[in-house]
Design a protein that fits this description.
Blueprint: E1 15-18, E2 24-26, H1 28-32, H2 35-53, E3 61-63, E4 69-75, E5 81-86, H3 103-115, H4 118-132, E6 137-141, H5 147-151, E7 160-164, E8 167-173, H6 180-192, E9 196-201, H7 209-217, E10 221-224, H8 227-236, E11 240-250, E12 256-266, H9 284-323, H10 328-342, H11 357-360, H12 365-374, H13 386-394, H14 406-416, H15 422-440, H16 453-459, H17 464-467
Parallel strand pairs: 8-9, 9-10
Antiparallel strand pairs: 1-2, 1-3, 3-4, 4-5, 6-7, 7-8, 10-11, 11-12
Helix pairs in contact: 9-10, 12-13, 12-14
Bound molecules: zinc ion.
The site of zinc ion has 9 residues, from loops.
Length: about 475
């Protein structure tokens, strides 16, 4: 039923019940009646009124809200007007001529008036019926709020309420548009009452404002009882909703796209958050975060893979360069690999050493370290032993000192343990002692050049821990025993 629009001046009673036919009579129908018909009805209503005065039971019209008898009144002078009048004082009735309603009460009445149509009642009873079949549900109640309760401010009775396990759960049906302010007020009320509330729609209509609002308020989850839901309910013999929800997807350009999907949702699928008291079944934000995290992790893994491939390419290009006896073309290919690495997110200036000839060039740092690691001369004459390569390397000077790489080479020896005769092994151990002693004496001839540390570490990760030590640098303790 729709609330009558544009009532006449005196028409406080908007709707009457015809006690003979049971039909509803909107007040404005009185205005459209031919004069003789209206006069006839007015006379019947008056006769019933007189009968009641004499102690009789006759009633022609009833107020649709308070169900008190009505009679008909009219004014002919000026603008024509006809209206229903309560025959008794009815202070609980919002349409009683002696009452003045607050705007909030009128809004609540309009809301309830729009709600309680046939479809609304059917849906209420449907939900209540199936809740009654659920062994986990008790205390199902779907009594309608009476209008006198509305007038007294007790209009917040839900359409259906129940106990789900030990949880208070109510259902509010939204067939017509509910003012957003009402939804917010009712949500707040249920939160205070520690009661979970599910707003139920009879169809999914994304263009409807109420659907949009509700989707926004409830993690883009909507509970719909449509034909699909009823079919699933029947098949399962358990209350089942069409659970409409938005699903986020992320395209290759990091643009989000949301698509509506639906799935059957039973009571067991409900998640019951105690903060919002709004049950839901699909956590949109959680899904979105998960997609983001997966994408970031995949991207990181891909970056790491590309970086590792780039480092491997550098090593191979270096070996080709050495095998070509330091050919210019191979040298350029090696530097080109570094240019590639520079475009990578993992690149930092410490890796610049990779393109310095003192690092990769003839008898440079890279050649000695590769020889130690592989156990055979690289870039050096194949007639030499690894020991001879190391021995030559220990004498390499840089602007830092006379034996600028002695310490890293001995660390590499310690780490990779290339095979060599015992005598040479001991010689290297003695050399290491000599270095320590020299530092202890305050000398700096073995001060190491740290400018290639990052380049060394990225190619020889096993040396990382040694390289991070201050030994052989200005940061070393005075006793040189680090
Ligand atoms: Zn009334």
């Amino acid at each position: 039923m729709q609330p009558p629009s544009r009532p006449g001046l005196q028409q406080t009673v908007r709707l009457a019940i015809d006690n003979q036919t049971g039909e509803l009579v909107p007040a404005e129908a009185l205005l459209a009646m031919p004069e003789d018909e209206f006069s006839g009805l007015r006379r019947e209503a008056m006769e019933a009124r007189v009968d009641r005065r004499k102690g009789g039971q006759a009633v022609r019209y009833l107020c649709a809200i308070c169900k008190f008898p009505l009679y008909l009144s009219r004014r002919i002078t000026g603008a024509q007007n006809r209206w229903f009048v309560h025959d008794r004082k009815s202070h609980d009735c919002p349409w009683y001529e002696g009452n003045r309603l607050a705007p909030e009460q009128i809004k609540a009445l309009v809301y309830r008036g729009q709600q309680e149509g046939r479809e609304h009642r059917e849906l209420k009873e449907y939900i209540a019926h199936w809740l009654g079949q659920d062994p986990l549900v008790s205390d199902v109640n779907c009594e309608q709020t009476t209008f006198s309760e509305v007038v007294k401010g007790e209009w917040r009775r839900p359409d259906v309420k129940c106990l789900y396990g030990r949880v208070k759960l109510v259902f509010e049906i939204q067939l017509s548009y509910t003012f957003l302010s009402d939804v917010i007020a009712r949500d707040a009320f249920y939160r205070r009452e520690k009661t979970f509330v599910i707003w139920v729609f009879s169809k999914f209509n994304r263009s409807r404002a109420a659907v949009t609002d509700e989707a926004f308020f409830n993690r883009r989850n909507l509970f719909v009882i449509d034909a699909d839901a009823r079919r699933h309910t029947g098949e399962r013999s358990a209350l089942t909703f069409s659970g409409y929800h938005q699903v986020p997807t992320l395209d290759d350009n990091w643009q989000w796209r949301d698509t509506w999907q639906f799935m059957p949702i039973g009571m067991a699928d409900l998640k019951l958050p105690s903060d919002t008291r709004r049950p839901y079944f699909f956590d949109y934000e959680a899904r979105r975060k998960q997609i983001e995290t997966e994408r970031i992790e995949a991207s990181r893994a891909e970056q790491a893979r590309q970086w590792a491939a780039g480092i491997a390419a550098y090593r191979e290009a270096a070996l080709r360069y050495f095998a070509s006896d330091h050919g210019e073309e191979e040298r350029r290919a090696l530097v080109a690999v570094v240019d590639e690495l520079e475009g990578h997110t993992a690149w930092h200036p410490g890796f610049e050493g990779l393109r310095e000839s003192r690092f990769y060039g003839y008898h440079g740092v890279l050649a000695v370290l590769l020889s130690i690691q592989t156990g055979k001369p690289v870039s050096y004459s194949p007639q030499l032993s690894v020991f001879q390569v190391i021995e030559a390397g220990l004498r390499t000077a840089s602007r830092v000192g006379l034996h600028a790489y002695a310490i890293p080479y001995l660390w590499a020896y310690k780490t990779y343990r290339p095979a060599m005769p015992e005598k040479q092994r001991k010689w290297l151990i003695d050399y290491a002692r000599k270095i320590k002693l020299s530092f202890a004496n305050g000398e700096s001839v073995y001060r190491r050049d740290t400018s290639f540390d990052e380049a060394i570490e990225v190619l020889f990760p096993a040396l990382g821990e040694h390289l991070s030590s201050p030994f052989g640098t200005d940061l070393m303790d005075d006793d040189g025993d680090r």
